[in-house]
Specification:
CATH topology: Rossmann fold
Protein name: Phosphohistidine phosphatase SixA
Pfam families: His_Phos_1 (PF00300)
Strand order of the largest sheet: 3-2-4-1-5-6
CATH architecture: 3-Layer(aba) Sandwich
Strand content: 15-25%
GO molecular function: protein histidine phosphatase activity
Number of strands: 6
Distance between the termini: 33 Å
Structural class: alpha/beta
Length: 154
């Protein structure tokens, strides 16, 4: 299994709620640079947080890659979600190549859990950072970090 973890691009600092914060112009550019790293990959599914900035990020990636599938929105990808619940959810997935679009601190903790088997070493994920993990299954401590790319700053 190849699991791609993408943190949303830079978002506006304020909105009516945290979930409604949109991407900035710079955030959109960051996402397009990250999406370029996914070009040619055989992605089978894009799954995103329901928060606006993650939805916008996922849609930009979908368009940039001309990905034909729909974006799947799932509630266990929000900033405060429990990475252990994510492992249980990922265990149910059958895709061989999957992109999750989500937030900090969740994304860093999930990566740390997958790589090290615990959450004490979260992977540093700035806006639009893209991590590539690989392993037989998405289980705690059983995946390897293949690449980590941070946003292209403008």
């Amino acid at each position: 299994m190849r699991l791609w973890l993408l943190r949303h691009g830079e978002a506006e600092p304020r909105a009516a709620t945290d979930a409604e914060r949109p991407l900035t112009r710079n955030g959109r550019q960051e996402v397009l640079h990250a999406a370029a790293r996914l070009a040619g990959r055989p992605l089978q599914r894009i799954i995103a947080s329901p928060y606006l900035r993650a939805q916008q990020t996922a849609e930009l990636v979908r368009e940039a890659l001309d990905f034909q599938g729909a974006i799947i929105t799932l509630p266990w990808l929000t900033p405060e979600s429990d990475p252990r619940e994510a492992l249980a959810q990922l265990a149910e997935r059958e895709e061989g190549e999957l992109l999750l679009v989500t937030h900090n601190p969740f994304v860093g903790e999930l990566a740390g859990l997958l790589l090290h088997g615990h959450r004490q070493q979260p992977l540093p994920m700035g806006t639009a950072s893209l991590a590539e993990l690989e392993g037989d299954m998405a289980l705690a401590g059983l995946m390897e970090l293949r690449s980590l790319h941070h946003a292209h700053r403008i």
